[in-house]
Amino acid sequence: MGVKEQWHNFADSRFARVIRNKYLIAAAIFVVWITFFDSNNLIDWSKVVLNISEQESQKKYYIQEIKSIEEKLNELTSNRDSLEKFAREQYMFKDDSEDVFIVVPKM
Question: What pLDDT, on a 0 to 100 scale, did the predictor assign at position 71?
């Protein structure tokens, strides 16, 4: 079987007829165009979806942080003893009649 005969057999085969179909070629070009070359291609779209999911998880984290900070603020504004404790621990506040000594351990 020569090369010419093999070519004619391929050209007459069902696979070759499907490949030569103009609608199939147009659809394949469309899929390649949408996947890689369009301004809203699938690659960029997947990156955007990933970015959105990361931002949604950050949103959940910050909502939880806001709730905990609001609880602390409510506790500090409603209870004078907790406000005094917070001021002493965080900002080294003291009463006028007290002396504060900071002890730093040697390493």
Answer: 94
What's the CA gap between 50 and 43, in Å, rounded? 11
Give the single-character DSSP code of 38.
S
Burial of 86 per CB tally in 10 Å (0-12, 13-18, 19+): middle
> Where are the chain's structural domains?
1-38, 40-95
**pLDDT, tens digit (0-9, with 9 covering 90-100), for 88-97:** 888 877 777 7
Cα separation, 86 vs 76, in Å, equals 8
Composition of the chain by helix, strand, coil, percent to 5? 75, 0, 25
Give the predicted TM-score (pTM) of the model. Answer: 0.52
Per-residue model confidence as pLDDT tens digits over 49-96: 999 999 999 999 999 999 999 999 998 889 888 888 888 888 877 777
